[in-house]
UniProtKB/TrEMBL annotation:
Residue stretches spanning the membrane: 7-25, 31-53, 65-85
Primary subcellular site in the record, as a coarse category: membrane
Organism per entry: Natronobacterium texcoconense
Coiled coil: none
GO cellular component: plasma membrane
Xref: InterPro entries: Cyt_c_oxidase_su4_prok
Cell membrane found in the keyword field: yes
Subcellular location(s) per record: Cell membrane
Keywords assigned by UniProt, alphabetized: Cell membrane, Membrane, Transmembrane, Transmembrane helix
Protein's UniProt name: Cytochrome C oxidase subunit IV
Pfam families noted in UniProt: COX4_pro (PF03626)
Domain of life of the native organism: Archaea
Bilayer topology: Multi-pass membrane protein
Lineage: Archaea, Methanobacteriati, Methanobacteriota, Stenosarchaea group, Halobacteria
Amino acid sequence: MADVRTYALIYVVLLVLGTGKFVFFTFDFAYATAMGATILLAIAKAGLIAGYYQHLIEEPRAVSYMMGVALFMVFLLTVAAGYSIQ
């Protein structure tokens, strides 16, 4: 298990990444650039939360790969659902 210093550092990084949305949409960025950067920040935040706060870092790699495959399948289902709505 990680120590308090690691959790505090991850918290600060999450705080900085969370303010990125504000920065991208407040200052003069193109909407597509701001949206793409916000999505990338959200992916990074989700990875940090899953890795450290849900302790996937300490799990065997097979569990991490299984979670990655499940996430990819959810992504495919979301794309398929979006395609069928059109």
